[in-house]
Structures are given as structure tokens and as C-alpha cells.
Amino acid sequence: MMITLASGSLRRRSLVGAVIAILLICLAVPSLFAADSHVVKIGVLAPITGAASADGQEFVNGARLAVQEINKAGGVLGYTFEVVPGDTMDMKPDAVLSAVNKLLSDPQVGIILTGYCSNSNFEVKNMADAGMPYIIAGYPAQTAEIISPNPDKFPTVWSYSCTFRGYETELPKVVEGWAKEGKLTLHNKSVALIASDNPYSMTIYNGLKETFAQMGWTVTLDEKVPFGEVLDWHVILGKIRSNVPDLIVNTDYLPGNGATFVQQFMENPTQSLVFIQYGPSVPEFLDLTKDQSTGVLYDYITAPLPTPRTKKIKDAYIAAYGSEPGGYGYMLYEMVYLYAGVLKQVRDPMKKLDIGKAIGRIDTELSMGRLKFDPKTHLSIAGANFIPTVFYQIWHGQRILLYPKKYSNGEFMLPPWMK
Length: 419
What we know:
Largest sheet: 6 strands, parallel
Radius of gyration: 26 Å
Strand content: 15-25%
CATH architecture of the largest domain: 3-Layer(aba) Sandwich
Oligomer: single chain
Number of helices: 14
Order of helices and strands: HHEHEHEHEHEHEHEHEHEHEHHHEEEEE
Helix content: 40-55%
CATH topology of the largest domain: Rossmann fold
């Protein structure tokens, strides 16, 4: 009996000693325990691996650059930030859901940001159900379709991108404007249209097809390729060469596919303008095409405009990563600063509903123009006084802004293969 009591006493003394030791460690090294409560994680959903990895890396780089700047300046109200990526890989639902759940299950994640992470934006519902602040840039038509029937169910979800309707309507108007100015001859107002089988590409393709028809253009080619890597465009290019159009439009947005298309087009170019959707805005496109892309056209909604703020972001990005940012580098950078500004108002990163509602009230000037949200769709507002559709032409590795004219830093020129 005496032995039992002694053993119990020894165990109690050992336990007390262990507790005291832990308390001493806490007092000596408080950062091990206290710092995490003041670190807010910013989740970034991104296709870090897969065909869209160039974009995915832009997402992460842009967000990390902003976080580094904010942390270096002392954070926000004692909070510092950490970027936590969630890899959506090939953007198939299982991969997206896995990345979403990973971020939603982390109690320190205060907001989730993305350029795009799925082809349907289904994850918008997951974010709303979890009460997670979520800013998304891609596929605004899908975002509006989900939210507009009942916007009040999505108080924490907002789209950095405005409607992409400008992608569907502005190109033929701008091209005809150049023709009227004598910069271009349209022989028969004909266009070859190529789409990739995904919602973004198909929405733009269908809208352009309708607009071209309304404006009296003839469609000489109507082709669709499967979504994913396309290594050989020769069959489609053969059809284009057999019935030469004034304009070739390829709405496949993957920069590698656009680069391959341009390279194979240049083997035997036709007397046609070449327009590639989105891909030329990504640095990878210029790396792959070099001078072969001189003369190629593209447009961009939510493009960084030539302002002092844009230059500041660009210079900081180049200093950090050694290359210019693409559009998503700017976007994710701006999203982080939007969140930091809202946190200053709300003061508590765990008041996620309040943060979501505060995001919806934002009205501010960013690198892309004036950001203000439409309460009916939760998209940012498009237009000349808000977010314009901007047209560029590549010239010897430089992107020349052509339209709107108030932002332009150059004039449209006939591509070298048309002279």
C-alpha cells in the first residue's frame, strides 16, 4: 500500500514538473504560441500544375508580392499575412473540391482568392455555404448565373472581373474602325472562328459569332477543338489557307496553344489579321513566340492600364521575380490589398460575414480602372468609366495598347506578314 502511494505521489510530482516546464517555455519563447493567432492565411486557389500552370504561378506570385509588402510595412492592426496555395491542377471537379476543402478546413484562412479554379465556378456555392470571403476573377458569366437568382445568399462572394460581354461585341467594331481610318483594308468582311471546348472560350466564340453576323461579316471557318493541349493546328490552318479571311479569331485561351497556332500560321501566313484570346497577355506566350508574334492582336478586360499604380506594381514584380507580370499577377496583388483595406475597417479577420459585406461596398481606383460591384450579379461594373475592354498589338516583344484611345501608347499597324 505504501509503495502504491509513493508511486502516485511521484507521478503527480512529475506531471507538475512537466506543466511548469511547458509554462516556462511559453514565457521564454512566446512567439511559438502567440504568433500564429496574429497570422491570417490568405488562400489562393490556382492551377499550379497542369496546362494552365503559367497562370497559376501568376496567381501565387501576385498574392505573395502584396503580402510581402504589407508584412514589411507592419501588417494590418497587428496582423500579418501568409499565402497558402491550393492546387486545382487540371481544374477537374475532384481536384478543385480537394483544394477548396483543404483551404476551408484551415481555421486561420481569412479569405480565399483566385483568378479562376474551375470551368463552372461551382465552388462559389461552397464558399457561400462556409461563409468564406471569396474574390474570383475568372468566368464572370458563370458567377453571375449562380448568384443573380438570389444575391443575398452570396454575401461573401464577389467577382473582380466584370461581364465579359465586351469580348463578344467589341472586336469587330474596333477592326472596322481601323478600316474606316484607312489603316486596314477589309476585302470582304470575312472571319475564321476557332474555339476551344470550355465555357470561357465557347461563351466568347458564340458571342462573337452573333456580333459578326449582325454586322454583316461572313464566317469562312467555324471550328472547335477539345479543351487541353493542342500540338497540331495544321489541318485547321489548311482550311484557312484554302479560303483566306480578313480576320482569324482563335478563342483558345491557353498561352501554349496560342503560341503553337502562331508558329504554325507563320510557316505560310495568309493576308489576314490574327487575333488570339487572352493567351498573348501571359509572359509565356512571348517567351515561346519571340518575334513571330509581332503583329498579333488580343484584347483584355481587367487589363492593367498605363497608370502610376500599374507601373509601381510592375516594377515591384520584376524586382521580385525577374519578369513582367501577366494580368493575373496584377489581379491577385490587387485582391490582397483589397482584403487588407477591408480588414482595417472590420478589424477582426474572423468576422468573415462582415468582411464579405464590406468587400461588396468597395468603390476604388485600381490598376484596371474603377472597381465597384453590381449588387445584382456581384460582378464588377464594366464601362468606359469603370473597367474598359482594352486592345493590344504585340510588336517585337512589346505589348502596344491601341484602344481605348485615351489609354493608348501606340497606333495599330499592319502585321509584317501583310505588308
